[in-house]
Amino acid sequence: MTSTLALTGAPNFRDLAGDTGYRGAGGRALRHHRVFRSDHLGQLSQDDLNRLAAGPGTRFRVLDLRGVNERTTAACSLPAAEVHSLPIEPTIVQKLTDLLDAGARLTEADTVALMQDTYRGFVRGNTPRFASLFAHVLDAQADSPIVFHCTAGKDRTGFAAALLQLALGVPQDVVMHDYLLTNARLAARGPFPGLPAPVAHVLHRVQPDFLQAAFDALEHDHGGLEAYLREGIGLDAVARKELQRLLLEP
Question: Model-level pTM greater than 0.90?
């Protein structure tokens, strides 16, 4: 089964289950058309809306991970969406701006280090937001598909997607492969304007070292993924089983 949806207004929109189907616990395939990850949904064309209507529909529950001010710049254009704000502020942009304004000559290595710190911050400062995302996915009273997103759908969204896939039993190498697909999805978009080329080059892409920094943080702070899911996300054995019931094929 293929689940490719090419949206011109949201090129990083894709099924959490993968194109031809990732497999999780017990070798069971992830269900298609249940959970999607994306960049922001503020520039969807009519053709995009038609493609969605012919597939999963347009009555999504939208989980918006953008910051409070950030999300006002491009409101969701899905006509029948139920939007929930789970704001994670884009601190990397402010840090870079402050450093550049102070005269710092940032290299690619400097920017990579800052991005790694951002990903560690997902674990150390934003776990409640990701726990809320899981709670929405587990909401038994709602049967509409979910799409979660930030602005480019690469960092905040990338970490959230990795957590969900790992909780479903998708192997870590497959999770990393899915995470890196963002680079192909966003290749047509130019680098961040107004930034030095070495900085813009890093911000435009994802790297294994970014996501690994988050994994290292949850290992250091919580003792590993399983403990983090249980203690940080609130995914106990009962909830884990329910998540797999909802998102894995029988």
Answer: yes
